[in-house]
Design brief:
Layout lengths: L7 E3 L6 E3 L3 E6 L5 E4 L7 E6 L2 H10 L1 H6 L5 H13 L1
Antiparallel strand pairs: 1-2, 3-4, 3-5
Amino acid sequence: MKIKKIPMRMCNGCQEMKPKKELIRIVKSPEGILSVDLTGKKPGRGAYICKDTLCLEKAIKSKRLNKNLETAIGEEIYAKLKDEIVNE
């Protein structure tokens, strides 16, 4: 049997490589609309963050999500991310 490759992505908070399924994806659609993508399959440019409030705070403070998605991220997206992290 062949060993299945696990896709790895970098967290924008702690800058560590982790399996894609352990991270939350924030996506910027081709139309420029930002959303939280829990399935990881929406089209567009994506940025990833750990399911940890410390990583989210680091990403907000350093504005890494803004840089990776090449747009300003509103408070509603950060609020959605916090809700997802707390509810997990």
